[in-house]
Amino acid sequence: MTYRSNITDKEKFEHICDLTTSLAGVRKGSLAFKSRKHKLQLPRLVAANIGRINEIHHRVISNVLNRDRSLIYHYEKTHS
Length: 80
Description:
By secondary structure, this protein is mainly alpha-helical. The protein has helices spanning about 10-25, 40-55, 60-65, 70-80. It is built from 4 helices and no strands.
């Protein structure tokens, strides 16, 4: 097994999203959908918070989730 030490923040967050979708039982890549269904909102929230805990920038998280950066600020402020 080879380990990459130069993994980018985008790759890290995409991996976090893949793990979150597999645990939540939703389709891979579905966190970037514009749907507001609860079964997608909660995994999206979890992935965003894990990303912020791992010090991934708001801009990277919002680009991967196909959301506005202010939503990530809201996640961080309201869910500690």
